[in-house]
Amino acid sequence: LVLLVSALLVGFLSVIFTLIWVLHYREGLGWDGGALEFNWHPVLLVTGFIFIQGIAIIVYRLPWTWKCSKLLMKSIHAGLNTIAAILAIIALVAVFDYHNVRNIPNMYSLHSWVGLTAVILYFLQLVLGFLIFLLPWAPLSLRAVVMPIHVYSGLLLFATVIATSLMGLTEKLFFVLTNPAYSTFPPEGVFTNTLGLLILLFGALILWIATR
Amino acid sequence: LVLLVSALLVGFLSVIFTLIWVLHYREGLGWDGGALEFNWHPVLLVTGFIFIQGIAIIVYRLPWTWKCSKLLMKSIHAGLNTIAAILAIIALVAVFDYHNVRNIPNMYSLHSWVGLTAVILYFLQLVLGFLIFLLPWAPLSLRAVVMPIHVYSGLLLFATVIATSLMGLTEKLFFVLTNPAYSTFPPEGVFTNTLGLLILLFGALILWIATR
Ligand code: HEM
Ligand code: HEM
Ligand code: HEM
Ligand code: HEM
Ligand SMILES: O=C1O[C@H]([C@@H](O)CO)C(O)=C1O
Fold this sequence. Notes:
The structure is a homodimer. Chain A is mostly helical. The first copy, chain A, contains 7 helices and no strands. Chains A and B meet through helix 5, helix 6 and helix 7 of A and helix 5, helix 6 and helix 7 of B.
């Protein structure tokens, strides 16, 4: 229980830090084809793809779900993962649109290659999850065979998304922290490094809870 | 067995790609306080901290160790992890020395914060491993309690090191690929993005093998 509460707290703090970052240190949020629109990218990914996905993964371990039926639990798990997927898509639309308006090429960075792969495999995981574990027609034997793969690929995707977000933060900080430079320890750099550590800690807590 | 061979192959390929990268696209290797010295940083980390650590993690699963005694297996596991730790330290000396010669501040980036934390915790894991699992005095009950923590923290550190290397690659590519820019898909960028995907695939294979 202490673990669950700390995970929720650290995850919540990561979302708050991301919001403070874009609203206080960056330009804020908007849908203008410029920096305001780009800023939805980190906000939606940390909120949706990291925080909500993390909760979806441990939802079977939350005490208040123990009194729910298995079907209800599965629906919550599937529903949260669906919300996370939708927010991730909007986050990608934001950054592609920003790149197109500014005539910046798409999909050149390692961050974008790993990130897009993760989003596509996440959708595959979601569709397979629905087909095999929610719809009633899959035989139990199929479910039993697929379950270890589902758990492994779910946790691997979650870890990959965390790694992607750390790459994205790194890129963005080197882009925008030029004067004063990132290397001179400006408050924004220290603040955002702390955000990176929080995201990593959230990931570590979720993985610990999910593997107990 | 197919999995083991693929993991070894992908890991080996990652090391080769790193060497091709620094020898062909970058300046090569040397200990001159300049770029040649920096280049030891990625080479030693991909070779030692990623490849050797990965092998150390799955050493208990290799068929040729099944005929060895448990003590011999533990010694190989501990020995490989010790080599990985030493290579990581030399890699850190290389980059700190490079920064000092060039008057670049140390420890400002998220990459360096996560990386140094991982190296320190790795040493802790190593020392605790020796004390609890190799020296004969620890009671079996203590070993049984610590083992799940040892496995979790070992796998988490491995994943964190992979994430750190992807951040490091990202940084380096934005530093050096200015003309032509990283965003114009120069061969070095595409080659090194592929290296990043190989490292990630190696990590995924090791984690799959270690959790079967
Ligand atoms: C967590 C999951 C994330 C995923 C799946 C992801 C995915 C992507 C993708 C696919 C692109 C390419 C867009 C294009 O080429 O038009 C991109 C770009 C970018 N992302 Fe993310 N991102 C994530 C998190 C973040 C975070 C937290 C940041 C922090 C600010 C960030 C910063 C950037 C930046 C600066 C770019 C533009 C440069 C580039 O193309 O690499 N990303 N992201
Ligand atoms: C991309 C979306 C998804 C991801 C990342 C994901 C990930 C995971 C993970 C990591 C676990 C292990 C949780 C634990 O051990 O506590 C899990 C369990 C499970 N998931 Fe998913 N999942 C996804 C979608 C779905 C969908 C759509 C369904 C359909 C209902 C589903 C059904 C299940 C079931 C039945 C379990 C086993 C729960 C148990 O331990 O009894 N998943 N999932
Ligand atoms: C895999 C484990 C890795 C660890 C633990 C690690 C650790 C570190 C540390 C602690 C620093 C700070 C040095 C200082 O401030 O003087 C650093 C710097 C650096 N590393 Fe790594 N590194 C890793 C992998 C890589 C890789 C694969 C690259 C790819 C080229 C890389 C590129 C860099 C760069 C460019 C710097 C200088 C900029 C900065 O301080 O962030 N690193 N690394
Ligand atoms: C930083 C160094 C270390 C790391 C990252 C590490 C990591 C790991 C990991 C991930 C596993 C699980 C492997 C699997 O399930 O196949 C493991 C198992 C184990 N480790 Fe370590 N380890 C380290 C150091 C040590 C040391 C110094 C010892 C002392 C001998 C040790 C003893 C063991 C033992 C006895 C097992 C259980 C093997 C079994 O499944 O029977 N480890 N280690
Ligand atoms: O939640 C479930 O767990 C089982 C099975 O996959 C476990 O092996 C199953 O069929 C579900 O729908």
